[in-house]
Each structure stands twice: as C-alpha cells, then as structure tokens.
Amino acid sequence: MNFREIIDQWRKIFAVAAKPERDDFMTTLKLSLLGMTIVGGIAFVIRVVFYAFLFPQMAG
Description:
Blueprint: H1 3-16, H2 22-54
C-alpha cells in the first residue's frame, strides 16, 4: 500500500464521517468520565488497602 492509497482512504473516511450532535457528544463524554472515575476509584481503594494492610510501615 503506497502513500497515495493511504491518502485516498483517509479522504473517504473524512467524507463519510460526521460531527456528532451535542447530545451524543455530551453522553459519550459523561460515560467516559464516569468510567475513568470508577476505574480510578477502584485503583485508589486497592492502593489504600495495599499500603494499610500489607505494608503498614510504608504508609507513613
């Protein structure tokens, strides 16, 4: 696949792609932030448990 074919494929993608409506964008943004918050919260709890119970001398 040469450079020209890659450029042509990208042009096709940009021609078909559409900007999402505000409601769709906000829903996706909220779900993404919620997911990151949940994963971060789980990681924080695991870290606290790890330092508090497994290595209490490192917590200080």
